[in-house]
Design brief:
Helix content: 40-55%
Radius of gyration: 22 Å
Mean pLDDT: 91
Strand order of the largest sheet: 2-1-5
Number of strands: 5
Shape: elongated
Strand content: 5-15%
Low-confidence stretches: none
Order of helices and strands: HEEHHEEHHHHEHH
Largest sheet: 3 strands, parallel
């Protein structure tokens, strides 16, 4: 899709355009985003800017979908518990003492989730916690996400991706696995829908659109049948 910025050079297709009274043209309003982790490794002509996601933007369902695990399995329930605790706070347990860890709200990292699983008193508890092999399974999956090149502490603001009179291409082809690509597509779709619903409600209530407003958006998903789960 980055080639939309250049006029069509295929001779047969150029002749076909001529039959319709058209000439090849490039589009200067195309901007291609690629995952942060691979941005520096791709040819300059094929990318314009990196994109990334804040870990806190993912729900427990998102994590389970990306990892390919059952939402209500022990690993899924552990993920849910860890996300709640890292957001709201928990009691950490070490060999010598217990101490409170303040919740990080909506600004936590993958490392924060791992630390919670490894130190939370409730998660480590023999009575009400989770087995060691379950904890190890979740931690190993979380640490593997660092290879995705997708997460950052800031994340790409939606306003950078959705702009008036702009064709934004979010290229997920470098992400490994349909689950991860579907995760990004679903996350963006949800964020755009939520923001548009908030703006529409505010506009109907007579409030002016602020600087954070985004335009009505067409979201087109190439090969959508590959990304959307059958169920």
């Amino acid at each position: 899709f980055w080639s939309m910025k250049q006029p069509n050079m295929d001779e047969e297709e150029v002749r076909e355009l001529g039959a319709w009274g058209l000439r090849p043209r490039g589009f200067s309003n195309v901007k291609v985003f690629v995952p942060l982790g691979v941005y520096g490794n791709l040819p300059e002509a094929t990318r314009d800017a990196p994109f990334s996601v804040k870990p806190s933007e993912l729900t427990v369902d998102d994590w389970c979908y990306a990892f390919g695990i059952d939402r209500f399995s022990p690993t899924g329930l552990l993920l849910e518990k860890a996300l709640i605790q890292v957001r709201e706070g928990y009691i950490a347990l070490t060999e010598d003492e217990e101490f409170p860890v303040e919740g990080k709200g909506d600004n936590y990292s993958v490392d924060d989730i791992v630390e919670c699983i490894e130190k939370s008193r409730d998660i480590q508890s023999r009575e009400v916690g989770f087995r060691a092999d379950t904890r190890r399974a979740v931690v190993s999956r979380l640490l593997a996400t660092k290879e995705w090149g997708l997460f950052s502490s800031e994340g790409t603001p939606l306003e950078e991706l959705v702009k008036p009179d702009t064709v934004t291409v979010v290229d997920v082809s470098t992400l490994s696995g349909e689950g991860l690509r579907g995760l990004v597509a679903g996350l963006l779709a949800r964020k755009i829908l939520e923001r548009r619903m908030m703006q529409a409600r505010a506009e109907k209530a007579g409030k002016e659109r602020g600087n954070e407003a985004i335009p009505v958006t067409w979201l087109m998903v190439d090969e959508a049948h590959v990304l959307v789960p059958a169920k």
